[in-house]
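Lecture 7 notes: from sequence to structure.
We start with the chain below.
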Amino acid sequence: MTDRPRFFDDLAGVAGGALSALTGLRDEAEAMGKARMEDILRKLDLVKREEFEAISTLAARARAGQEAAEARLAALEKRMDELEARLPSPGYQPDLPNGN
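Predicted structure tokens for the same chain:
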């Protein structure tokens, strides 16, 4: 009586089939959960970290460019004020030598 009864072989086969079915169900539930989570995140209109960092870098560069442009404009306005201060007033009539 070294042979196992066929009942145990059948039982092991059913258990193996049930285990593979449960594994399949788990994988399917995981995939459905992941799809649902991606759908929720898409509806929230969130961005990925890489996109956020790229936009942050662009914004920092734009801010630096704007600050440089503002500084240049201030220097040009100062220079213009200095030059205008040297000009004679609008009603000014220079003394012209008399040609007689």
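Points to note: The mean pLDDT is 85. The first helix runs from residue 6 to 43.
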